[in-house]
Amino acid sequence: MATLRDLSRRLGLSVTQVSRALNGHADVAEATRARVLAEARRLGYQPNAAARRLATGRSGMLGLVLPGPPRMEEDSLFVQIVAALSQHLARLGRLFVLHIADPDEPQTEVYRRLIGGGAIDGFVLLEPQLRDPRVAFLRAEGVPFVVHGRIEPPHDYPFYDIDNRAVARRLTGMLIAAGHRRVAFLNGPARNTYAVSRRAGWREALEDAGIEPEPALHRFGAMSAGAGLVAAVDFWGPRGLWPTGVVCGSTRIAMGLLEGIRALGLSVPEDVSVVVHDDELPGLRPALFDPPLTATRSPLADGWPHLARLLVAAVDGEPAERLQVEGHVVTDERGSVAPPRPAPPGTV
Amino acid sequence: MATLRDLSRRLGLSVTQVSRALNGHADVAEATRARVLAEARRLGYQPNAAARRLATGRSGMLGLVLPGPPRMEEDSLFVQIVAALSQHLARLGRLFVLHIADPDEPQTEVYRRLIGGGAIDGFVLLEPQLRDPRVAFLRAEGVPFVVHGRIEPPHDYPFYDIDNRAVARRLTGMLIAAGHRRVAFLNGPARNTYAVSRRAGWREALEDAGIEPEPALHRFGAMSAGAGLVAAVDFWGPRGLWPTGVVCGSTRIAMGLLEGIRALGLSVPEDVSVVVHDDELPGLRPALFDPPLTATRSPLADGWPHLARLLVAAVDGEPAERLQVEGHVVTDERGSVAPPRPAPPGTV
DNA sequence: CTAGTATTCCAAAACGTTTCGGATGGGTGG
DNA sequence: CCACCCATCCGAAACGTTTTGGAATACTAG
């Protein structure tokens, strides 16, 4: 493998100048730079990553840490993320390190090990939580990171996110506009920040319409078909609360909900109106549901290129304020919303 | 971050001795080593990966390169591989680098870039092919690698593999033993070495029974349900070859094959006997097919820990002969094999 | 002609580790 | 007492890059 010294000898230049020529510094004559570049190409020169890293303190490696092996139903999404990050980082000249943590080891220990040896320059953080310990740790250590989503203020870090409160407001608002007053919300896990924002949005939409939000109609829970099915049985079973409209935080929840609604002999949108936020999860398209579901839509996939770009910029020292991207959300009307039908006698 | 120098100053030792103490060299007094270890722990010392790498030439990073984003039906398998490699390598103190190559860039260029800067010590090679260009390149460059499967002899490299010829012999043999003479084989892609070995096994089993292998009954093709379905229509359609028994190289092929057989109004095992090799692909269990399929079984997942271990050993200079593992294959009899029924009149 | 300013270059230090070639001192066998 | 060996230690070089602080040259303004 050719080194800078080899080049410098062949060219009759100092190692310094060769380095500066290759790195595009200003104080090297254009003619010299051309000679250096030509010779470097000829010899197939590639800078030694270790040496560069020792000198600069940067490794050029960016990491994603998962708390454990993904659950089966998340497989396709996981592949999407990993493939996208790897590809986009490669395009930016970085390497992608994937680390599946041992579920027993404390999260921050894992990060400590990875940054300790200077192996990894920065991290992508998925599924941020309120008072996220990873964020606290990386902040304290001064290690760059980019968040997919947002944590609580101050927002002094790079992120890609959508306006989750607005999403929930819009979905809830569509049902209210159709005349619904008992609007339930099947939300994600309470520990995730986006779920908290969405609850706020649901509340606001109701309050704006002069409706008192009924706590029992809001549910934190898993983003799974199971959660939707259970909710259906619970809402419209013997002692149910009979909401007339339901906002689903995920197409997976909606899938289970629709199954439950069908099983109970009800139908959408005649008996219940359903709307959903569509992340464009692989293989789950609200347009292909029966009936097709009205939805707000912002593909998760939109975020991956941004995350790669933002993280690289953050490692390069760009200030966080310029590294905050909010994704677009569009609305797809599909006819799963109709005016409410009065609740059957004998229910609240 | 504490360095060796910090430790040496605190302990009144030379940097040399501290380094040797931590790395378990022989010429350091036990008492000294204990002191060093204690102090290292106290300061939370972690060796700087870049410096070590610069000195030793090894980076501690091991890579997997995929030629492009995985296809959807392979997602779960891909997750399994990636998660397992990451976890097992982490346990061995190495980092796992996943690189999704740009499909346009020539494979060897990708590897050249990755090893060029000394970024990656060695690679896991999946889906080896005959005269695999990656193998040729890595061999020429002297970069360690481990192969999942085998390439053509000489076998002077580390691998984990099963005896694919024996698998095909066993499956074909089971059908022959039940009285079948027209035994078809739905194989994997011709470019993959395992498919070539399996074809040899199929041939041998037939020849051992004094049956002339009929080339039209063997098919290279994708490991997909589609391939199985097409084969079914082709075998038992209007101008079909009417094999009485079929060996499937994968449960995915078998899935399509069974669907086709059913669609043609035939049934297993009355009209056709079917056996399959079961890799334990996620979500595909021959025991749950209708009817349950007789199979040879060796979980792909068995291989991942070996691959991690073998690669690490290879990078550490262990000779290849000791780094060759052959996985076990068991047979599951499930009753999808019956004696053949005579071909309908008018067919070959 | 002089002082000042760009432009282009370079020697040497620094990054933190491993390793090579000894040095030191105590013990052993003669 | 000498020669030798063993156990334990150390200084210095090496890995290949970036960066610092200036040096040398040519040009410009006065």
Describe the structure.
Chain A has helices spanning 4-11, 15-22, 30-43, 49-56, 75-91, 107-116, 133-141, 164-177, 193-208, 225-236, 251-263, 303-315, and strands spanning 61-66, 95-100, 122-125, 145-148, 159-161, 183-186, 218-219, 245-248, 273-278, 294-297, 324-326, 330-332. The mean pLDDT of chain A is 93. In chain A, the strands form 2 sheets. In chain A, strands 2-1-3-4-5-11 form a 6-stranded parallel beta sheet, sandwiched between helices. Chain A has 3 domains: 1-46, lambda repressor-like DNA-binding domains (434 Repressor (Amino-terminal Domain), Orthogonal Bundle), CATH 1.10.260.40; 49-161 and 302-329, Response regulator (Rossmann fold); 164-300, Rossmann fold, CATH 3.40.50. With 348 residues, the first copy, chain A, is an alpha/beta fold. Chain A is built from 12 helices and 12 strands. The interface between A and B is large, with 44 and 44 residues.
